[in-house]
Amino acid sequence: MNTLFDSVALGELRLPNRVVMAPMTRVRSNTDGLATASMAAYYAQRASAGLIVTEGIQPSLLGQSNPLTPGLYTAAQTESWRQVTDAVHVNGGRVFAQIMHGGRISHPDTTGLQPVGPSAVAPRNADTFTPSGPQPVPVPRALTTEEAGHEARSYAAAAERAVTAGFDGVELHGANGYLIGQFLSSSANLRTDHYGGSIAGRIRFAVEAVTATAEAIGPQRVGLRLSPGAGIWDAIEEETAELYGALLAALAPLGLAYIHLEATTDEQTLVDLRGAWPGSLIVNPSFPMGPLPAGRKQADDWLDLGADLVSFGRAYLANPDLVERLRADLPLDEADPETYYQGGDEGYLDYTSYRY
């Protein structure tokens, strides 16, 4: 029987355990989207994870969702990430960059640009962060067919920069209602061209983005995160099981490093997707921003259900030594939600390993 603490192969890597640090937005970059020394220290503290997946990194200014999030579309941004990857590697870790295009979840006050999406449809009753505080998400501009193809390829360009910066691979953010998820959604995607309509049309953008990235840096360096049925940011999906089954079937021949599923739909659907996916599967057991972070029991349950690795999000905020705490069944500290997005080192670098 698999345990969290077994060594496991993932793509081209050999991981010392099955614990993954999930991507989490922390808004600690500078105004130019550069990674900072504090970010390098933060990830280095957590290098005992089998794999770290960074916070979402925008592949372009147009793809930026929130203020003070990092990018991978300029030479300076690319160089700034070298301090992060070096710090993680020196501490014995492995790190993938999560490439995240916000699509319609953005604001002109953040980027100076009108957000884009599959269709000119804004999420209902939704505010997004801006430099002056939360504001309603505006109606996006619908991408043309040509522009949609260009945005799909933007993930691959960012992935090439990630490899230059020393990352071991990349994870495309296809979850939680951002651009890939918007194309999958039957409420956000009202297109009538080949990027919309049928299930085959709605998965096309995701397939093109992943395929281009796999061709750019090699499939064994590429993962994809998904949140079936989550409905986050009002990206509602119909026929969830059929939609994601078709997506995984289209991606299976590529030989990707992994699929990363959030537990955002019923357990049987997730188990069926496990059976449909021939490669490595990471499961994140907690619904995003749910009442409790995942713990050891939920992780063991998902390993029994067929997951190859288990990712932890909020549990990693206040527990940089999470692997050892789980191994020794030590109590977990709780992070202060007030410090999640406030910037600075408080609530970021000041959590410590367990003190016996």
What does this entry look like structurally?
- By secondary structure, the protein is α/β, with parallel strands linked by helices.
- Helices cover 31% and strands 15% of the residues.
- The strands form 4 sheets. An 8-stranded parallel beta barrel has the order 3-4-5-10-11-12-13-14, surrounded by 4 helices. Strands 1-2 form a two-stranded antiparallel ribbon.
- Strand 12 (258-262), helix 10 (267-276) and strand 13 form a beta-alpha-beta unit.
- The chain is globular.
Report Rg: 19 Å
Q: List the secondary-structure elements in sequence, H or E.
A: EEEHEHHEHEEEEHEHHHEHEHEHEH
* Structural class computed from helices and strand pairing: alpha/beta
Number of helices: 12
Helix content: 25-40%
CATH top-level class: Alpha Beta
Give the CA-based shape: globular
